[in-house]
Amino acid sequence: MSENIPQFGVRVSPENNPYQPSAPYSPVGSNYQAPVAPPKKPGLGIAALILSIVVFVGSLVWSIANGIASWEIEIPTGSSFEEIMQESMTSEMSMQDTLFGLSTMAHLGVGTLLGVGALVMGIIAISTKRGRVQGIVATIIAALAPLVSYLVYSVVAALGMV
Question: What residue ranges are annotated as transmembrane (predicted)?
């Protein structure tokens, strides 16, 4: 039994080595390379980019429209809450005020849902490498859209007060 075990200091040829792997295994130092995964398609990043651009442009247009609509809103002048409510109920502008409020709420709701959707799609595209560059640009655009939209609305609404 001790004949098959190599002794310390004795060189054993690869053919006689009992610890050498058998034929199905590749020898050490072979030219084995791991299989290369096919590149992932950038469809998700492109979709996120398109959605973020649509949200950005739509939000700007909606902000300008709401800013212009805010020029016509009457500010109540009553001294008490009851007088202000009575004046706003009988005002000819109450329908326009209502439509302005609904438009503003729709702008916030639609912009938020689509903007968060574009942001999430962009982050997923970045992390899964499915259109990384487009995902980065989409994430930046989707993150800047509410800030720019609010700035544009504020400027347009302020122009109406002048």
Answer: 44-65, 99-124, 136-159
